[in-house]
Amino acid sequence: MTQSSQYDLRLSSRMARLGTETAFEVLAKAKALEAQGKNIIHVEIGEPDFDTPSNVVEAAVDALHHGWTHYGPSAGLPQLRKTIADYIGRTRSIEVSPDEVVVVPGGKPIIFYTMLSLIDEGDEVIYPNPGFPIYESMINYVGGKAVPIQLREERDFTLDVNELAGLITPHTKLIILNSPQNPTGGVMPRTDIEKVAEIIGDRNIMVLSDEIYSRLLFEGEPFSIASIPGMKERTIILDGFSKTYAMTGWRMGYGVMRTDLATQMTRLMTNSNSCTASFTQMAGIAAITGDQSPVGHMCAEFKHRSEVFVAGLNKIKGFSCRQPKGAFYTFPNITKTGWKSKPLADALLEQAGVAALSGTSFGEFGEGYLRFSVANSLENLQEALVRLDKWTKQNL
Ligand SMILES: Cc1ncc(COP(=O)(O)O)c(C=O)c1O
After folding, report:
1. How far apart are the C-alpha atoms of 173 and 144, rounded to whole Å?
2. Rg, Å, the chain Cα set
3. CB of 46 shorter than 6 A to ligand 1
4. CB 183 within 8 Å of CB 322
5. What local confidence, expressed as pLDDT, does residue 23 receive?
6. Under a CB-based contact definition with an 8 Å cutoff, are residues 151 and 158 in contact?
7. From the CA of 365, how far away is ligand 1's center (Å)?
8. What is the pLDDT of residue 128?
9. In angstroms, what is the span from residue 332 Cα to ligand 1's centroid?
10. N or C: which end of the chain has fewer CB within 10 A?
11. Which atom of ligand 1 sits closest to the CA of residue 240?
């Protein structure tokens, strides 16, 4: 509803440049249909359907009872920063000190703070497209120039390093990598990551390496560009708790970066959030240092579900889908349906009761695709397939 007032709302001009994450809008639309009595299968939102491991929940409750209910340092509690530094150091084979860690409410603020702290008007940022929509939104918001690099299906949705080389100009200030990737489930091979570092060479270009799905990799070991000699000081690693430990609603993530940049991001934290909730940070220590078997279980389950779901999608008229290599998304090609992505996603929600996302929610190069999350039970995923099959048979 629009507010009527004698006073015009005089928004800042930059608000017109802000994008969105459509998943939240489709979720709201699906909920509204449910309120009218419709049955909807939710395959739109990107969050694990598992519960947060019980040791983490218990640690938070314990922390609440022990007074971890006050402000803490803006960069995060020293004990959590140390835990994260050890964890990232161990898993990326690099030396990380606690003052290179900034704890923030979710992974998203690291994207925001990276743009705010590094990007001036006209600075170029190369980012994956289709990709997590907040990258493009934030680049535009701060007045940067968004330079998409297309992820192509025939390359299993990994970027073409030669194409990347052609996009770099003297104005390039930041390159965003995301592997395993949202929305395609693509994973950059180690050799490609090494080539990206080679192409950057000794140029003063920063890399935002979004590794939030690094523990949801179906085969092999994750590899970070920060592990390549000479790259650590030019890399901001984004990671967090949302996806790894099914903690999306807790709002806790972090960035690992050189200390001079960490100081600046800490200033942004002081100005915006003051700090991440203290008791959740105590639970974060339990998450990283506790039993890791729930993470392995969740990853195996997502792999299995995506195999079942992709096999089912490939039987549906007009759909063809590659097997994702990580995360919990499938990204079928729907061009043979003859429909554009957005109207198809809308029709599937309204007529078939399946809430999926249009590929264009992830940028212009997402046209021709839909994203289905497999973060739902196998039973519901099977039901989604039945509904898709029925709808396509009736409508195509
Ligand atoms: C690629 C990517 N980066 C960052 C995030 C942000 O995660 P968080 O919920 O921790 O803010 C998401 C969430 O969907 C994501 O898919």
Report:
1. 10
2. 21
3. yes
4. no
5. 86
6. yes
7. 20
8. 98
9. 21
10. N
11. 10
For residue 132 and ligand 1, the question of a CB distance below 6 A is answered with: yes
Q: How much distance in Å is there from the Cα of 243 to the middle of ligand 1?
A: 8
pLDDT at 2: 61
| Mean pLDDT, each 10-residue run in order, the chain (396 residues) | 81 94 90 95 89 97 98 98 98 98 98 98 97 97 98 97 98 98 97 98 98 96 97 98 96 98 98 98 98 97 98 98 97 98 97 97 98 95 98 96
3-state helix, strand, coil in the chain (%, to 5): 45, 15, 40
Q: 334: CA distance to ligand 1 center in Å?
A: 25
178 lines ligand 1 (CB under 6 A): yes
Neighbour count for residue 292 (Cβ, 10 Å): 14
Q: Assess contact for 73 and 265: CB atoms under 8 A.
A: no
Amino acid residing at 221: E
Q: Distance (Å, rounded) from C-alpha 24 to C-alpha 20?
A: 9
The helix-helix angle for 108-118 and 133-141 (nearest 10°) equals 30
**Separation between Cα atoms, residue 235 and residue 228, nearest integer Å:** 10
Tell me how far apart the alpha carbons of residues 127 and 148 are, in angstroms, rounded to a whole number. 5
Q: Which two tokens stand for residue 378?
A: 């196998």
Q: Is residue 242 in contact with ligand 1, taking CB distance under 6 Å?
A: yes
Q: Which residues contact 166 (CB under 8 A, 6 or more apart)?
A: none
Tokens of 362: 């992830």
pTM above 0.90, yes or no: yes
Q: Is 210 in the pocket of ligand 1 (CB under 6 A)?
A: yes
Q: Which of 108, 238, 329 to mutate to test the pocket of ligand 1 (most atoms within 8 A of CB)?
A: 108
Q: What is the spatial distance between Cα 214 and Cα 242, in angstroms, rounded to a whole number?
A: 12
